[in-house]
Design brief:
single chain, alpha/beta, TIM Barrel, Arc Repressor Mutant, subunit A, nine-stranded mixed beta sheet, 17 helices, 42% helix, 22% strand, binds iron/sulfur cluster
Protein backbone atom coordinates (compact mmCIF):
# COMPACT_ATOMS: atom_id res chain seq x y z
CA UNK A 1 0.00 0.00 0.00
CA UNK A 2 1.35 3.35 -1.00
CA UNK A 3 1.38 5.82 1.88
CA UNK A 4 1.71 9.54 1.39
CA UNK A 5 4.01 11.18 3.91
CA UNK A 6 3.89 14.82 4.70
CA UNK A 7 6.53 16.76 6.54
CA UNK A 8 3.95 19.34 7.58
CA UNK A 9 3.65 19.64 11.34
CA UNK A 10 1.02 18.18 13.69
CA UNK A 11 -0.61 19.96 16.61
CA UNK A 12 -1.56 17.88 19.66
CA UNK A 13 -3.72 19.08 22.54
CA UNK A 14 -3.80 17.06 25.75
CA UNK A 15 -7.02 17.31 27.78
CA UNK A 16 -5.97 16.14 31.25
CA UNK A 17 -9.35 15.02 32.66
CA UNK A 18 -11.07 11.67 33.03
CA UNK A 19 -14.25 10.82 34.90
CA UNK A 20 -12.46 7.86 36.46
CA UNK A 21 -9.04 6.31 35.86
CA UNK A 22 -9.07 3.05 33.91
CA UNK A 23 -7.14 0.34 35.70
CA UNK A 24 -4.49 -0.07 33.00
CA UNK A 25 -3.89 3.56 32.07
CA UNK A 26 -0.70 5.53 32.73
CA UNK A 27 -1.53 8.58 30.63
CA UNK A 28 -1.60 11.76 32.62
CA UNK A 29 -5.10 12.77 33.70
CA UNK A 30 -6.92 13.79 36.87
CA UNK A 31 -10.48 13.09 37.96
CA UNK A 32 -11.05 16.52 39.56
CA UNK A 33 -13.22 18.04 36.86
CA UNK A 34 -13.67 21.30 38.79
CA UNK A 35 -10.45 22.51 37.13
CA UNK A 36 -11.97 22.31 33.64
CA UNK A 37 -12.83 26.04 33.23
CA UNK A 38 -9.43 27.25 34.48
CA UNK A 39 -7.60 24.71 32.37
CA UNK A 40 -9.50 25.72 29.24
CA UNK A 41 -8.56 29.36 29.78
CA UNK A 42 -4.93 28.40 30.31
CA UNK A 43 -4.89 26.22 27.20
CA UNK A 44 -6.21 29.05 25.04
CA UNK A 45 -3.54 31.31 26.50
CA UNK A 46 -0.83 28.70 25.86
CA UNK A 47 -1.74 28.76 22.17
CA UNK A 48 -1.10 32.51 22.11
CA UNK A 49 2.21 32.11 23.94
CA UNK A 50 3.46 29.24 21.79
CA UNK A 51 2.27 30.16 18.32
CA UNK A 52 4.82 28.79 15.82
CA UNK A 53 5.09 31.07 12.85
CA UNK A 54 7.55 28.91 10.94
CA UNK A 55 5.46 25.75 10.89
CA UNK A 56 2.60 24.72 8.67
CA UNK A 57 0.17 22.23 10.28
CA UNK A 58 -1.97 19.69 8.49
CA UNK A 59 -3.29 17.89 11.58
CA UNK A 60 -4.85 18.86 14.88
CA UNK A 61 -5.47 16.09 17.38
CA UNK A 62 -7.36 16.63 20.63
CA UNK A 63 -6.51 13.70 22.88
CA UNK A 64 -6.12 12.93 26.51
CA UNK A 65 -7.44 12.15 29.00
CA UNK A 66 -11.00 12.46 27.84
CA UNK A 67 -11.64 15.43 25.53
CA UNK A 68 -15.35 14.60 25.48
CA UNK A 69 -15.68 15.89 29.07
CA UNK A 70 -15.91 19.23 27.23
CA UNK A 71 -19.11 20.34 25.55
CA UNK A 72 -19.10 21.25 21.88
CA UNK A 73 -18.99 25.01 22.47
CA UNK A 74 -15.82 24.52 24.53
CA UNK A 75 -14.24 22.32 21.84
CA UNK A 76 -15.23 25.05 19.40
CA UNK A 77 -13.25 27.59 21.47
CA UNK A 78 -10.22 25.28 21.24
CA UNK A 79 -10.38 24.69 17.48
CA UNK A 80 -11.13 28.36 16.76
CA UNK A 81 -8.18 29.53 18.85
CA UNK A 82 -5.93 26.90 17.25
CA UNK A 83 -6.80 28.19 13.78
CA UNK A 84 -6.16 31.78 14.92
CA UNK A 85 -2.82 30.99 16.53
CA UNK A 86 -1.27 28.45 14.15
CA UNK A 87 -0.89 28.15 10.43
CA UNK A 88 -3.31 25.21 10.00
CA UNK A 89 -4.10 24.17 6.43
CA UNK A 90 -7.78 24.36 5.40
CA UNK A 91 -7.91 20.61 4.59
CA UNK A 92 -6.27 19.59 7.87
CA UNK A 93 -7.26 16.35 9.59
CA UNK A 94 -8.92 17.45 12.83
CA UNK A 95 -9.50 14.62 15.27
CA UNK A 96 -10.93 14.39 18.71
CA UNK A 97 -10.97 11.35 20.96
CA UNK A 98 -14.28 10.52 22.60
CA UNK A 99 -15.18 8.16 25.40
CA UNK A 100 -18.51 6.35 24.91
CA UNK A 101 -19.27 7.04 28.57
CA UNK A 102 -19.15 10.83 28.23
CA UNK A 103 -20.38 11.61 24.75
CA UNK A 104 -23.93 12.41 23.65
CA UNK A 105 -25.48 12.74 20.21
CA UNK A 106 -26.02 16.54 20.47
CA UNK A 107 -22.38 16.96 21.46
CA UNK A 108 -21.19 15.06 18.37
CA UNK A 109 -23.22 17.25 16.03
CA UNK A 110 -21.63 20.26 17.74
CA UNK A 111 -18.13 18.82 17.34
CA UNK A 112 -18.69 18.66 13.60
CA UNK A 113 -19.70 22.32 13.59
CA UNK A 114 -16.52 23.05 15.57
CA UNK A 115 -14.53 21.66 12.63
CA UNK A 116 -13.83 18.14 13.90
CA UNK A 117 -13.70 15.87 10.85
CA UNK A 118 -12.34 12.67 12.40
CA UNK A 119 -13.50 10.90 15.53
CA UNK A 120 -11.49 8.38 17.50
CA UNK A 121 -13.77 6.38 19.77
CA UNK A 122 -12.27 4.64 22.82
CA UNK A 123 -14.30 1.44 22.53
CA UNK A 124 -11.64 -0.97 23.89
CA UNK A 125 -14.06 -3.92 23.85
CA UNK A 126 -17.63 -4.77 22.90
CA UNK A 127 -17.97 -7.14 25.87
CA UNK A 128 -19.05 -6.03 29.31
CA UNK A 129 -16.79 -8.48 31.16
CA UNK A 130 -13.73 -7.01 29.39
CA UNK A 131 -14.83 -3.42 30.01
CA UNK A 132 -15.29 -4.26 33.70
CA UNK A 133 -11.85 -5.85 33.87
CA UNK A 134 -10.28 -2.74 32.30
CA UNK A 135 -12.21 -0.41 34.61
CA UNK A 136 -13.85 1.50 31.76
CA UNK A 137 -16.68 3.89 32.69
CA UNK A 138 -18.87 2.88 29.78
CA UNK A 139 -20.93 -0.20 29.05
CA UNK A 140 -21.01 -2.40 25.98
CA UNK A 141 -24.33 -0.79 24.97
CA UNK A 142 -22.88 2.69 25.32
CA UNK A 143 -20.02 1.71 23.00
CA UNK A 144 -22.56 0.70 20.33
CA UNK A 145 -24.63 3.83 20.94
CA UNK A 146 -21.62 6.15 20.64
CA UNK A 147 -20.69 4.63 17.27
CA UNK A 148 -24.26 4.85 15.98
CA UNK A 149 -24.53 8.45 17.21
CA UNK A 150 -21.25 9.32 15.47
CA UNK A 151 -22.62 7.98 12.19
CA UNK A 152 -25.95 9.76 12.68
CA UNK A 153 -24.07 12.98 13.37
CA UNK A 154 -22.39 12.59 9.98
CA UNK A 155 -18.91 11.40 10.91
CA UNK A 156 -17.54 9.19 8.14
CA UNK A 157 -13.93 9.20 9.23
CA UNK A 158 -14.11 7.26 12.48
CA UNK A 159 -11.54 5.12 14.25
CA UNK A 160 -11.98 2.74 17.18
CA UNK A 161 -9.42 1.80 19.82
CA UNK A 162 -9.51 -1.83 20.92
CA UNK A 163 -7.46 -3.73 23.50
CA UNK A 164 -6.52 -7.39 23.38
CA UNK A 165 -4.35 -9.78 25.38
CA UNK A 166 -6.49 -9.74 28.52
CA UNK A 167 -5.94 -12.58 31.03
CA UNK A 168 -7.49 -15.83 29.78
CA UNK A 169 -8.58 -14.16 26.54
CA UNK A 170 -9.23 -16.77 23.86
CA UNK A 171 -8.99 -16.30 20.12
CA UNK A 172 -12.80 -16.60 19.96
CA UNK A 173 -13.21 -13.85 22.53
CA UNK A 174 -10.94 -11.47 20.60
CA UNK A 175 -12.53 -12.35 17.27
CA UNK A 176 -15.89 -11.40 18.77
CA UNK A 177 -14.62 -7.84 19.32
CA UNK A 178 -12.98 -7.65 15.89
CA UNK A 179 -16.16 -8.89 14.23
CA UNK A 180 -18.31 -6.33 16.03
CA UNK A 181 -15.84 -3.59 15.07
CA UNK A 182 -15.77 -4.35 11.34
CA UNK A 183 -19.58 -4.57 11.20
CA UNK A 184 -19.48 -0.78 11.60
CA UNK A 185 -16.97 -0.43 8.76
CA UNK A 186 -14.74 2.10 10.57
CA UNK A 187 -12.11 3.90 8.56
CA UNK A 188 -9.43 3.06 11.10
CA UNK A 189 -8.71 0.58 13.87
CA UNK A 190 -6.04 0.76 16.56
CA UNK A 191 -5.57 -2.62 18.25
CA UNK A 192 -3.39 -2.31 21.32
CA UNK A 193 -1.93 -5.16 23.29
CA UNK A 194 -2.72 -4.83 27.00
CA UNK A 195 0.39 -3.73 28.89
CA UNK A 196 0.94 -3.63 32.63
CA UNK A 197 2.36 -0.16 33.20
CA UNK A 198 4.09 0.60 36.47
CA UNK A 199 1.99 2.65 38.85
CA UNK A 200 -1.34 1.38 37.55
CA UNK A 201 -3.76 -0.73 39.62
CA UNK A 202 -3.41 -3.46 37.01
CA UNK A 203 0.34 -3.58 37.56
CA UNK A 204 -0.19 -3.80 41.35
CA UNK A 205 -2.61 -6.66 40.74
CA UNK A 206 0.02 -8.41 38.67
CA UNK A 207 2.71 -7.95 41.31
CA UNK A 208 0.38 -9.19 44.05
CA UNK A 209 -0.55 -12.24 41.99
CA UNK A 210 -4.22 -11.24 41.72
CA UNK A 211 -3.92 -10.94 37.94
CA UNK A 212 -2.40 -13.67 35.77
CA UNK A 213 -1.20 -12.25 32.47
CA UNK A 214 -1.84 -14.08 29.25
CA UNK A 215 1.15 -16.19 28.17
CA UNK A 216 3.46 -14.59 25.57
CA UNK A 217 2.70 -17.28 22.98
CA UNK A 218 -1.04 -16.62 23.30
CA UNK A 219 -0.49 -12.88 22.95
CA UNK A 220 1.57 -13.44 19.81
CA UNK A 221 -1.17 -15.69 18.42
CA UNK A 222 -3.76 -12.93 19.05
CA UNK A 223 -1.49 -10.41 17.33
CA UNK A 224 -1.29 -12.65 14.26
CA UNK A 225 -5.05 -13.26 14.41
CA UNK A 226 -5.56 -9.48 14.35
CA UNK A 227 -3.51 -9.04 11.20
CA UNK A 228 -5.07 -12.00 9.40
CA UNK A 229 -8.62 -11.08 10.34
CA UNK A 230 -8.32 -7.41 9.45
CA UNK A 231 -6.53 -8.10 6.17
CA UNK A 232 -9.35 -10.49 5.28
CA UNK A 233 -11.86 -7.75 6.07
CA UNK A 234 -10.44 -4.99 3.90
CA UNK A 235 -7.90 -3.33 6.18
CA UNK A 236 -4.16 -2.97 5.85
CA UNK A 237 -1.70 -2.76 8.68
CA UNK A 238 0.49 0.29 8.28
CA UNK A 239 1.95 0.38 11.77
CA UNK A 240 2.39 -2.28 14.41
CA UNK A 241 -0.96 -1.48 16.13
CA UNK A 242 -2.76 0.48 13.42
CA UNK A 243 -4.94 -0.57 10.50
CA UNK A 244 -6.62 1.55 7.84
CA UNK A 245 -9.57 0.56 5.70
CA UNK A 246 -8.65 0.01 2.07
CA UNK A 247 -10.76 2.06 -0.28
CA UNK A 248 -10.42 4.09 -3.40
CA UNK A 249 -8.43 6.63 -1.44
CA UNK A 250 -7.08 4.30 1.19
CA UNK A 251 -4.29 6.61 2.24
CA UNK A 252 -6.82 9.08 3.59
CA UNK A 253 -7.94 6.48 6.16
CA UNK A 254 -4.52 6.33 7.73
CA UNK A 255 -4.22 8.52 10.82
CA UNK A 256 -2.35 11.42 9.32
CA UNK A 257 -1.60 12.76 12.77
CA UNK A 258 -0.15 9.57 14.22
CA UNK A 259 2.09 9.24 11.18
CA UNK A 260 3.85 12.39 12.37
CA UNK A 261 5.25 10.51 15.36
CA UNK A 262 6.48 7.53 13.36
CA UNK A 263 7.96 9.53 10.51
CA UNK A 264 9.64 12.05 12.81
CA UNK A 265 7.74 14.98 11.35
CA UNK A 266 7.59 18.06 13.58
CA UNK A 267 4.80 18.30 16.14
CA UNK A 268 3.82 20.72 18.86
CA UNK A 269 2.09 19.47 22.01
CA UNK A 270 -0.05 21.69 24.24
CA UNK A 271 -1.48 20.92 27.67
CA UNK A 272 0.08 19.13 30.65
CA UNK A 273 2.62 16.41 29.81
CA UNK A 274 2.37 17.06 26.07
CA UNK A 275 5.60 16.57 24.10
CA UNK A 276 6.86 18.60 21.17
CA UNK A 277 9.46 17.63 18.60
CA UNK A 278 11.33 19.77 16.13
CA UNK A 279 14.35 17.85 15.07
CA UNK A 280 16.78 17.48 16.77
CA UNK A 281 15.03 18.90 19.80
CA UNK A 282 12.31 17.41 21.98
CA UNK A 283 10.67 19.26 24.86
CA UNK A 284 7.71 18.62 27.08
CA UNK A 285 5.30 20.41 29.38
CA UNK A 286 4.98 19.94 33.12
CA UNK A 287 2.72 17.00 33.79
CA UNK A 288 0.74 18.40 36.71
CA UNK A 289 -2.31 20.35 35.74
CA UNK A 290 -2.12 22.85 38.66
CA UNK A 291 1.53 23.64 37.85
CA UNK A 292 0.65 23.95 34.18
CA UNK A 293 -2.13 26.46 34.95
CA UNK A 294 0.04 28.41 37.40
CA UNK A 295 2.84 28.77 34.85
CA UNK A 296 0.52 30.07 32.18
CA UNK A 297 -1.37 32.37 34.54
CA UNK A 298 1.94 34.00 35.40
CA UNK A 299 2.77 34.43 31.70
CA UNK A 300 5.35 31.62 31.46
CA UNK A 301 5.45 28.71 29.04
CA UNK A 302 4.83 25.49 31.02
CA UNK A 303 7.86 23.67 29.55
CA UNK A 304 9.34 21.22 32.08
CA UNK A 305 12.48 20.21 30.21
CA UNK A 306 14.04 19.71 26.82
CA UNK A 307 16.68 17.54 25.21
CA UNK A 308 18.68 17.75 22.04
CA UNK A 309 18.93 14.30 20.50
CA UNK A 310 22.45 13.16 19.72
CA UNK A 311 23.22 11.64 16.32
CA UNK A 312 23.16 8.20 17.93
CA UNK A 313 19.77 8.79 19.58
CA UNK A 314 18.38 9.96 16.26
CA UNK A 315 19.72 6.85 14.56
CA UNK A 316 18.16 4.54 17.16
CA UNK A 317 14.84 6.37 16.89
CA UNK A 318 15.03 6.21 13.10
CA UNK A 319 15.43 2.43 13.26
CA UNK A 320 12.82 1.83 15.94
CA UNK A 321 10.17 4.05 14.38
CA UNK A 322 10.97 2.81 10.87
CA UNK A 323 10.52 -0.82 11.89
CA UNK A 324 7.17 -0.02 13.54
CA UNK A 325 5.86 0.96 10.12
CA UNK A 326 5.01 -1.94 7.82
CA UNK A 327 6.70 -0.17 4.91
CA UNK A 328 9.90 -0.28 7.01
CA UNK A 329 12.97 1.92 7.01
CA UNK A 330 13.40 4.11 3.98
CA UNK A 331 16.95 3.28 2.92
CA UNK A 332 17.41 6.39 0.80
CA UNK A 333 16.29 8.60 3.67
CA UNK A 334 18.60 6.70 6.05
CA UNK A 335 21.63 7.23 3.82
CA UNK A 336 20.87 10.90 3.33
CA UNK A 337 20.19 11.47 7.01
CA UNK A 338 23.03 9.53 8.63
CA UNK A 339 25.52 9.20 5.80
CA UNK A 340 25.68 5.41 6.11
CA UNK A 341 24.29 2.50 4.14
CA UNK A 342 21.78 0.75 6.44
CA UNK A 343 21.93 -2.65 4.71
CA UNK A 344 25.74 -2.67 4.59
CA UNK A 345 26.14 -1.44 8.19
CA UNK A 346 23.74 -4.02 9.63
CA UNK A 347 24.36 -6.82 7.13
CA UNK A 348 24.94 -9.52 9.77
CA UNK A 349 21.77 -8.71 11.70
CA UNK A 350 19.75 -8.42 8.49
CA UNK A 351 21.01 -11.70 7.09
CA UNK A 352 20.37 -13.51 10.38
CA UNK A 353 16.83 -12.14 10.59
CA UNK A 354 16.29 -12.74 6.88
CA UNK A 355 17.18 -16.43 7.24
CA UNK A 356 14.41 -16.72 9.80
CA UNK A 357 12.01 -14.80 7.58
CA UNK A 358 11.67 -11.93 10.05
CA UNK A 359 12.90 -9.14 7.81
CA UNK A 360 13.12 -8.33 4.12
CA UNK A 361 14.74 -5.71 1.94
CA UNK A 362 12.50 -4.73 -0.94
CA UNK A 363 13.57 -1.96 -3.28
CA UNK A 364 14.41 1.00 -1.06
CA UNK A 365 12.92 -0.29 2.19
CA UNK A 366 13.92 -2.69 4.91
CA UNK A 367 10.82 -3.97 6.71
CA UNK A 368 9.76 -6.60 9.20
CA UNK A 369 7.72 -9.47 7.80
CA UNK A 370 4.46 -10.41 9.48
CA UNK A 371 6.30 -13.02 11.55
CA UNK A 372 8.99 -10.48 12.44
CA UNK A 373 6.52 -7.84 13.64
CA UNK A 374 5.68 -10.04 16.61
CA UNK A 375 9.26 -9.51 17.82
CA UNK A 376 9.56 -5.78 17.15
CA UNK A 377 11.21 -4.88 20.45
CA UNK A 378 13.76 -7.70 20.42
CA UNK A 379 14.62 -7.08 16.79
CA UNK A 380 15.11 -3.37 17.42
CA UNK A 381 17.50 -4.22 20.23
CA UNK A 382 19.47 -6.42 17.83
CA UNK A 383 20.06 -3.42 15.60
CA UNK A 384 20.89 -1.20 18.53
CA UNK A 385 23.42 -3.61 20.04
CA UNK A 386 24.45 -5.08 16.66
CA UNK A 387 25.00 -8.20 18.66
CA UNK A 388 23.13 -11.01 17.01
CA UNK A 389 23.86 -13.71 19.54
CA UNK A 390 22.80 -11.53 22.48
CA UNK A 391 19.51 -10.69 20.97
CA UNK A 392 18.91 -14.13 19.46
CA UNK A 393 18.24 -15.39 22.94
CA UNK A 394 15.31 -13.00 23.22
CA UNK A 395 13.52 -14.31 20.14
S1 LIG B 1 -10.35 7.22 29.63
FE1 LIG B 1 -8.44 7.00 28.46
S2 LIG B 1 -7.02 8.50 29.35
FE2 LIG B 1 -8.75 8.27 30.80
S3 LIG B 1 -8.04 6.77 32.26
FE3 LIG B 1 -9.17 5.64 30.67
S4 LIG B 1 -7.62 5.05 29.13
FE4 LIG B 1 -6.71 6.63 30.45
Amino acid sequence: MNLQFSQNAGLYIHIPFCVKKCLYCDFYSVTDLSLKPRFLKALLREMELVSQEGLCFDTLYIGGGTPSVYEYDEIDLITTKAFQSFNILPDAEITTEVNPGTVKFEQLGGYRKAGINRLNIGVQSFQQKNLDFLGRIHTENEAHRAIEDAHRAGFENTGFDLIYGLPDQSKQDWLHDLNKAVEYNPAHLSCYMLTYEKGTPLHSGLKAGRVQPLADDNIRALFETTIEFLEDHGYFQYEISNFARIGKESETHVSRHNLKYWTRAPYIGLGPSAHSFIEPQRYWNVSIVDKYIEAIESGRLPVADREVLSEEQQLIEGIYLGLRMTRGIDLVWFREKFGIDFVETFKEVISDLGRRNYIEVVKNHCALTRQGRVFLDSITSMFVSRNVSDAEAKI
